[in-house]
Specification:
single chain, globular, two-stranded parallel sheet, 12 helices, 7-stranded parallel beta sheet, alpha/beta
Length: about 300
Amino acid sequence: MTPEDITHPAPLASGPVCIVGASGRSGAALCRALLAQDQKIIAVVRSQGNLAPDIAQACQAVRIADLTEPAMLALAFEDAAIVVNTAHARHLPAILAATTAPIVALGSTRKFTNWPDDHGRGVLAGEAALEADGRPSILLHPTMIYGAQGEDNVQRLAKLLERLPVIPLPGGGRALVQPIDQRDVTRCVVAAIRLIQSGNVSGPESIVIAGPTAVAYRTFVRMVLYFAELGGRPIISLPGWMLMALSHVTRHIRKLPQIAPEEIRRLLEDKNFDIGPMEHRLGVTPIPLANGLHHLFGRRSPEKHKP
């Protein structure tokens, strides 16, 4: 993440922003973006050894806290003007109990799934806690995030595709996906912080953040193949139940990335969303998928791609 990737170059307000999960992918990207704008930040991590050295040296303070131990949180959030939670949204009730500061947090569009799991239910619980609390807050629900260093969505998919002579997809990969670039996630969080600092948030808000357009999953796979320069692969359609059964077998093949049955089942449902609130409320126009994949893999020109 570089300063040019953020649409707000001016320094933010002087009150420190407390970043929970500063050692994670989204948390680290946000820390670097805010530090580039001379924003004072407090990094909250479970282990200081996991925090990138450049962030540890530049932030106002590094505080150690476990989100499952409420007694530690009040000290971790002391003096924070805003608390930003980049960890799982299920921790929001504990965070709300430990501070009176406004909240910006990352949720997930997993909350919309037809097959609820612990991840989705945790997001819904965090959202309900913010609604009940009533303080100024913005909960951002990203779709599949790609483009961060070490992310395990697109990069894990590319590793799997590299090993497969044919690509089996449930339902032929016709369901829609709308991935969002990590840089856009960071821009959205910065914009949410801005809104709260400017006093333009009076209560809880929930906003979906996604890429500009949805594509069929089979198109997404072909784009990953193209930009990762993996060559063409035939795509075959298989029933979802068959692929879920096969996923149990692949768990015993060490060279293959592990695909859980639940992940395959979610490929059968459309994940397309209206980004109007993201564009109008946050002022963020997302990066086209072809441009984001080109940036991630650093190879072919997006203009040449034809899904």
